[in-house]
Specification:
Layout (H helix, E strand, L loop, with lengths): L13 E3 L8 E3 H25 L4 H21 L4 H13 L1 H17 L1
Antiparallel strand pairs: 1-2
Length: 113
């Protein structure tokens, strides 16, 4: 697992991010893990996009398949699964406050690297 930088006031308490019951509850730790994973996934996507443009179609497809597997490994390192990641992504798209929080966490992590 990739060590996550500690942020002052980062609680483990659950928070409700939607009106869909328990499925909408995520902890602050999960939000932080989501931001960290998203940062890594964006790097993989950018790299693959750049490299795939220069490859024949069959090699580009293989590269994209390997990238997808790497993205799943990234989620695992952050104790997330694809379903939880996608659920949080949907909420980030819907909720401005949550979107700002995720962007802030990503910026802080970029600066810490």
């Amino acid at each position: 697992m990739v060590p996550l930088p500690a942020f002052a006031g980062l609680a483990q308490s659950p928070r409700h991010i939607s009106g869909d019951g328990a499925a909408g509850t995520v902890s602050d730790r999960q939000i932080h893990a989501y931001a960290s994973a998203l940062l890594e996934i964006e790097k993989v996507r950018q790299s693959v996009s750049f490299r795939a443009e220069k490859l024949p179609q069959d090699q580009a497809a293989l590269l994209k398949s390997r990238a997808q597997a790497e993205m799943i490994r990234i989620l695992g390192r952050h104790d997330l699964d694809a379903e939880t990641f996608n659920r949080i992504s949907a909420r980030v798209d819907e909720q401005r406050r949550l979107r700002r929080e995720v962007k802030q966490l990503m910026m802080e992590e970029r600066l810490a690297i």
